[in-house]
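Tokens for chain A. Residues wanted.
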């Protein structure tokens, strides 16, 4: 199997350590590709909308985005990690997700995404891990992914692993290892189930694209949906 990991920071702190614990179950049975932000996506999305209106190759940062996009599409499991910065995911991963606006359901979602699984790993000193995870989950769900596992850890005392109490280390370790076991036991030869919420989103976007395509057959998003067969009876799930 293939796993693609997006690390929202280049810092190798507690989040990195938790991610390594999660991946331990997969080390001997998966091909793991990792990206570190902002190194692997160094430029800001400037909101030019070229990816939506002209196609993803028109993005000024296509050399970075195309490589990550290809890796995400080939992966059986997507892992995204981020510490909480002021109650949210890091700016670096928000920047990456902004670059993938064209992959949202209202535009040109990849059919491969509907059968994928994903895991989000976040932690913070005190509160904020849940809202950081929500930032990332929002995009993943609008890409079409239904099966999303979430780990949130509250450190409560220190941001350095070795300075955490033994009790806290044990608590976090047990929690991340439980999630790891859950996802390592999945049969990845079978696509993940697409939930009702995703199907309803798809249905709404389909109606919108059908109308847009009828008004302008050359409009990029509508043309894409037509080519996928989604404006007729075909579905990506």
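Reply:
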């Amino acid at each position: 199997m293939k796993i693609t990991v997006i690390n929202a920071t280049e810092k190798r702190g507690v989040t990195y350590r938790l991610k390594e614990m999660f991946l331990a179950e997969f080390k001997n049975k998966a091909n793991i590709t990792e990206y570190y932000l902002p190194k692997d996506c160094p430029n800001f999305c400037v909101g030019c909308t070229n990816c939506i209106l002209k196609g993803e190759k028109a993005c000024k940062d296509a050399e970075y985005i195309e490589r990550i996009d290809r890796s995400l599409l080939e992966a059986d499991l997507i892992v995204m990690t981020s510490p909480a910065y002021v109650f949210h995911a890091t700016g670096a991963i928000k920047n990456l997700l902004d670059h993938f606006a064209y992959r949202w359901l209202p535009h040109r979602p990849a059919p491969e995404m509907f059968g994928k699984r994903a895991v989000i790993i976040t932690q913070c000193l005190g509160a904020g891990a849940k809202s950081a995870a929500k930032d990332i989950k929002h995009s993943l769900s609008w890409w079409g992914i239904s099966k999303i596992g979430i780990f949130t850890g509250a450190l409560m005392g220190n941001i350095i692993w070795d300075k955490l109490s033994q009790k806290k280390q044990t608590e976090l370790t047990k929690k991340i290892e439980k999630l790891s076991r859950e996802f390592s036991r999945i049969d990845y030869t079978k696509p993940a189930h697409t939930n009702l919420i995703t199907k309803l989103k798809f249905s709404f976007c389909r109606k919108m694209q059908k109308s847009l395509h009828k008004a302008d057959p050359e409009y990029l998003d509508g043309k894409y949906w037509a080519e996928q067969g989604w404006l007729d009876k075909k579905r990506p799930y």
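Helices lie at 14-23, 50-53, 62-74, 91-99, 129-143, 166-184, 196-215, 220-228. The chain has a mean pLDDT of 96.
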